[in-house]
Amino acid sequence: MAEPIRVVVTGAAGQIAYSLLYSIAKGDVFGKDQPIILVLLDIPPMLPVLDGVVMELQDCALPLLREVIPTDKVEVGFKDIDAAILVGSMPRKEGMERKDLLKANVAIFKTQGAALDKYAKKTVKVLVVGNPANTNCLIASKSAPSIPKENFSCLTRLDHNRASSQVAMRCGVSSDKVKNVIIWGNHSSTQYPDVHHAKVNVHGTETPAYDAVKDETWLRGDFISTVQLRGAAVIKARKLSSAMSAAKAICDHMRDIWFGTKEGEFISMGVYATGNSYGIPEDLIYSFPVEIKNKTWKMVDGLPINDFSRAKMDATAAELVEERDTALDFLSHIFCHLVEDEGKCIYGYTQKVVQL
């Protein structure tokens, strides 16, 4: 059997991680013959909760799970890891403006990026989940200059899955009969779910999604807004965020990185926009259609873009440019540091110190 790989999950005491860790530990992500060492990283007040999570993982008696390491120290959490799933971030609270959320998360993801740079394997695959995911991913990558930029991605697979499911339900088929939907741009309400290049398998025949759905008004209206606002709709109904579907999307994303995408299919990931053929500003993490082979993603280039799509793609790019510039402005004014206080890690920055 293969040597164990080390996988860190941040925010490991949270509800997304609680839905995620079992799937990783039982082999749904990295393979049914791949032993796992799980590293659970969270802030000091959550260590007692992590102890309970460790006990549950032990009680699952999973043969692939060789060790579980709970910690609040980045030098332990990121040491020699093969995969990093960065779920933990400062959540948006009532009355908090988006710029306030960005300011808090710039501090966190600069620290985590620097820790990845210092302690992780240079081959590490980093998936950023914590919101605002695209810009957090950009900051983490910029803070880890020795790790290739293509090793960083952010989660838009949840939006991709939501879009595929909406089309499948509309056509009366199972979700695996829908392929090649695209999420362009930001994991926010400006994202653009695009089905102009999608196919639906109806009674054994692959049909363009527009022809299968037969409702352009819906595809250009309610379909887009449903996907864009789905997270808020789940929170309104559950009074909690979408943990189960987010965990499933994380598994899908990382499994495709590890094992590749199917021939003739592409999926959506937030990746560096450098060298794209779609006119998107380059210094962004932007969601594109990608194909993956040998743990390396390749952007699907040259898809025809109509005027409707162009406007939507540019609008979400404009939001990402604004987020990036705001975040980089904070970085230029804020000294982000990791303080050791009686062995406990505290994330902070000068000007208004935030302890998480």
UniProtKB/TrEMBL annotation:
Residues annotated as domain Lactate/malate dehydrogenase N-terminal: 6-152
PROSITE patterns linked to this entry: MDH (PS00068)
GO molecular function: L-malate dehydrogenase (NAD+) activity
SUPFAM superfamilies: LDH C-terminal domain-like, NAD(P)-binding Rossmann-fold domains
Ligand binding (substrate): R92, R98, N131, R162
GO biological process: malate metabolic process; tricarboxylic acid cycle
Highest taxon of the lineage: Eukaryota
InterPro entries the record matches: L-lactate/malate_DH, Lactate/malate_DH_C, Lactate/malate_DH_N, Lactate_DH/Glyco_Ohase_4_C, Malate_DH_AS, Malate_DH_NAD-dep_euk, Malate_DH_type2, NAD(P)-bd_dom_sf
Record's catalysed reaction(s): (S)-malate + NAD(+) = oxaloacetate + NADH + H(+); (S)-2-hydroxyglutarate + NAD(+) = 2-oxoglutarate + NADH + H(+)
Positions with a binding annotation for NAD(+): D42, N105, V129, G130, N131
Active site: H187 (proton acceptor)
E.C. number: 1.1.1.37
Pfam families from the UniProt entry: Ldh_1_C, Ldh_1_N
Record domain Lactate/malate dehydrogenase C-terminal: where: 156-330
Record keywords: NAD, Oxidoreductase, Tricarboxylic acid cycle
Similarity annotation: Belongs to the LDH/MDH superfamily. MDH type 2 family.
Functional summary from the UniProt entry: Catalyzes the reduction of aromatic alpha-keto acids in the presence of NADH. Plays essential roles in the malate-aspartate shuttle and the tricarboxylic acid cycle, important in mitochondrial NADH supply for oxidative phosphorylation. Catalyzes the reduction of 2-oxoglutarate to 2-hydroxyglutarate, leading to elevated reactive oxygen species (ROS).
Name of the protein this chain belongs to: Malate dehydrogenase
Organismal lineage: Eukaryota, Metazoa, Chordata, Craniata, Vertebrata
Gene: LOC127355049
